[in-house]
Automatic annotation (TrEMBL), chains A, B, C:
Keyword terms, alphabetized: Pyrimidine biosynthesis, Transferase
The protein, known as: Aspartate carbamoyltransferase
Residues binding carbamoyl phosphate, per UniProt: R55, T56, R105, H133, Q136, L263, P264
Enzyme class at the top of the EC tree: transferase
Biological role: Catalyzes the condensation of carbamoyl phosphate and aspartate to form carbamoyl aspartate and inorganic phosphate, the committed step in the de novo pyrimidine nucleotide biosynthesis pathway.
Gene Ontology molecular function: any one: amino acid binding
Residues annotated for L-aspartate binding in this entry: K84, R166, R224
NCBIfam families: asp_carb_tr, PRK00856.1
HAMAP family, alphabetized: Asp_carb_tr
Gene, per the UniProt record: pyrB
Record bears the keyword Transferase: yes
Organism, as annotated: candidate division CPR2 bacterium GW2011_GWC1_41_48
PANTHER family in the cross-refs: ASPARTATE CARBAMOYLTRANSFERASE, ORNITHINE CARBAMOYLTRANSFERASE, MITOCHONDRIAL
Residues annotated as domain Aspartate/ornithine carbamoyltransferase carbamoyl-P binding: 5-145
Length: 323, 323, 323
């Protein structure tokens, strides 16, 4: 059996995505019931963060611990061999001799794929610069499915920087696999979604006006807008309030809408929204743990994808290979 | 039951302090008997050092490992989310989704309390700038109780920088809960104890002359004096020798006196003192491990505080909730 | 029994080296059979890298995890106590209260020995600047013994920077303990082996011409040559091709020759050599894991050196003290 990497969400079929989602729900059940598992006892994760990201690093490392495994960890400043001129491929071919799975965050587009090509062990992409961040897309998917039970028929507003927002692009493409999904793409003109990410999107509407679409929305996905993205400060000042969510704006939203955000936020969601039961952005963080547990167990051969498909189709059974 | 944080020594009653002390002694017994425990198996500590402190970080992380738990760890340079403008509250609300307990060292006064207020999980203060460092005060307390058996009736000299020395202030306040304790506060005029820390201190004497008080002393607590604290170098040169402990000065001290220091030392204790059996400053380091084990177990609900009180009053029983 | 440190390869007799080698082979067997061991359950390694070396740090930390132990870890930037003026001895006397064994990498010659002198617990040298790097020499030794079965009678070419290459010096001395070993020392005139490392070497030949000696060689040990080492760029340009190994040059080598390199490489071995079955440089990395497992278990009293000697002499038995 060829080794399994997690490089891009687009590498997975809808069935596979559903199976991994099912495994993630199973992980949440297991953690709630037992606290931690023994599935990866004796296994070592090499956590390679060529650029720092404390939250993503902690999420993967905690996921590994919850599965009973161990972690060797390095962040940007420590990659002494590469300072001496070593290639990424050689670094990976070295690290894989100490570990069973590699998680890599690297500032360059395509770096995770290069790492996966060099490695005999599974590689998980934790963000390759402007490229993919598949585990974030998985956890968004998980959060929507958990809260709304279904993807089909949803009206989803993506708000903020839709031009540079890596997460948004993956999530839009993933959700477009489902029928009858309507997207409201709410951004300033300067930060519209690049057309290539909309090729397979059946139903969408672009607007600068969050307030008018808000009453229709089932999922409100907010992102950070950076002032530096605007050529003219006047444009920023004109538009920024449309993209700040607060309690009074929320009065017009559905009672069962959910509010998401990839975090960190700066001021695009007022803190008075945090106590609203529709706010799910900190729950997203926790969901990331279950998704990453499922993905680590999956690439290390501890999840039977066929059984998962059965389960995703309603049958129950023991998903985890404890052998 | 509300969650338990460890923010300041002043949050605890004398009974609670005694109970935690008792639990710390129990931890030392258990470590000596078994090497390590399983009390926190499956639990994760998030070790957040916004400013570096290798010794304090290692102490907490080793304590967690000795209890069977795991650790995700970050030091100053890695807090990438906060560089993007995230608040401390949001950082904490994120991290708590990966962990069961947070240990925080942060340069700003009051930061640990802010973190505790934001978190649903227990927060332990590992030093908030000029504020508190309660686990250091606990380990000082533990060391004195272990070596002298009682606090009552002791004559304690605190020597060095009593103006800025955070540890000294907490330790003075803690020991003042006991009857009949006499403090010699030995410091240059420029570095005297601020009066607010002496409000509840019944019996103290301020002096610049260590030599003359030394023969009376049961506990000699030395600290580092930084040259930069003096306006005039002449004052520093005049006084520095009074605050350096060496073998010949020790000749005038009691045989059962103990010598303490929060470490790191620079030159305020000559290395020829290290071999003196009265020197306890490296033992303090080890005592910190037992105290931090007790505190981690306590905030995670693994120590029954009522049973501890019984034990502190002489009854024996199984202190640890293994459930 | 006195504590055991690992400071320099020259501290060990030939019998002891063979015994540790035997223990390392045992570790490889155990890892292949079981994945990981429980030999150091409850033990803590303090991994102190005063200068960064991700690969060496990961190797020791992974070795500790494979033995069931735990790790507290710090790299250069974090040594806050030493920034305050603490001596290395005091740092070590503090750290040892949290840990059972210390691994130290430090830029200064002799620092590991100073650390070992200060510590009551075992200290393992992971490189002390221009001094020793004994675990690298052990893994080179292991790799040759594993691949060639014997050291006696081998023809070994050491290629590259033989003047500054710390690893080379230790490895030459170690292999010189065996009879009938012939060394080809292949380097530019500017980078010849210092004579003091050749005092006990019975049979060697110095040359600048790799191509002509290659057909004789059983072990080809390549190292990196730094352009900066040459006074004249013309010399570098004249010589550099002699020290680059590629597929066409390899055509003249023995079929059962092995190719080694301490890594990282820059361009002294072309990547088309990686797929050649004689290339063993990434296997060396993995061998380092087994050797470091054996050394950690050895210094912590979990390997019975007398039984190892028996085994090295052909007898079989249970090497590991599981008690």
């Amino acid at each position: 059996m060829p080794k399994q990497d997690i490089i891009s969400i687009s590498d997975f079929s809808k069935d596979e995505l559903e199976a991994i989602l099912e495994a993630s729900f199973k992980m949440e059940e297991e953690v709630n019931a037992k606290g931690s598992l023994d599935l990866l006892r004796g296994k070592i994760l090499a956590s390679l963060f060529f650029e720092p990201s404390t939250r993503t690093r902690f999420s993967f490392e905690a996921a590994m611990f919850k599965l009973g495994g161990q972690v060797v960890s390095a962040t940007g400043v420590n990659f002494s061999s590469m300072a001496k001129g070593e290639t990424l491929e050689d670094t990976i071919k070295t690290i894989e001799r100490y570990a069973d799975v590699i998680v890599i965050r690297h500032p360059e587009l395509g770096s995770a794929k290069i790492a996966a090509g060099a490695a005999k062990i599974p590689v998980v992409n934790a963000g390759d610069g402007p490229g993919d961040h598949p585990t974030q897309a998985f956890l968004d998917f998980y959060t929507i499915k958990k809260e709304k039970k279904t993807i089909e028929g949803l009206k989803i507003a993506m708000v903020g920087d839709l031009k540079y927002g890596r997460t948004m692009h993956s999530t839009i493409q993933l959700l477009s696999l489902y029928n009858d999904v309507k997207f409201y793409l709410v951004s300033p003109e300067e930060l519209k979604t690049p057309s290539k990410y909309l090729e397979n999107v059946a139903d969408y509407e672009e607007t600068e006006d969050l307030k008018s679409v808000l009453p229709e929305v089932d999922v409100l996905y907010m992102t950070r807008i950076q002032k530096e993205r605007f050529a003219e400060e006047a444009d920023y000042l004109r538009l920024k309030d449309s993209f700040i969510l607060n309690k009074s704006l929320l009065a017009n939203a559905k009672n069962d809408m959910i509010i998401m955000h990839p975090l960190p936020r700066v001021n695009e969601i007022a803190t008075d929204v945090d106590e609203d039961r529709r706010a799910k952005y900190f729950d997203q963080v926790e969901n990331g743990l279950y998704v990453r547990m499922a993905l680590l167990a999956f690439v290390l051969g501890k999840i039977d994808i066929r059984k998962l498909s059965l389960r995703a189709n309603g049958e129950r059974g023991n998903l985890l290979n404890n052998g």
